[in-house]
Amino acid sequence: MNFVYLKIPMPAKxxxxxxxxxAALDQALDQALAMAGLGTLLGWGRSLARxxxxxxxxxxxxxxxxxxxxxxxxxxxxxxxxxxLQAPPHTxxxxxxxxxxLQQELEPQGWSASHPTTAATARRHHRP
Length: 128
Known about the structure:
This protein is an alpha+beta fold. The chain contains three helices and seven strands, in the order βαββαββββα. Strands 1, 2, 3, 4, 5, 6 and 7 form a seven-stranded antiparallel sheet that branches. The protein is globular. 20% of the residues are buried.
């Protein structure tokens, strides 16, 4: 099994509507992976960041943890589904190949090529 996670940006003060959108996206991704026999969602949640204006903590992105059986076709399916579901720009796919932590980002013109992650992000790729 391979571990993949998504980082989906959340606008400041996203509120309930954003939660509903992300829940629907999670359900669609889980169904697509299951139907293809490529994996399943393990869980999801929000990650917080300090708001520059207020100093309080605000949701920064929605994280989706996924376990996949075959990495290349699962990544292709995830990229296609995220485009179909109109995931916001700067959505990131994080995964590991041969011990190297990699990521791709959804840019306005499409998905970026795979590139190494930073050292801090790479530590999060490995599950305990």
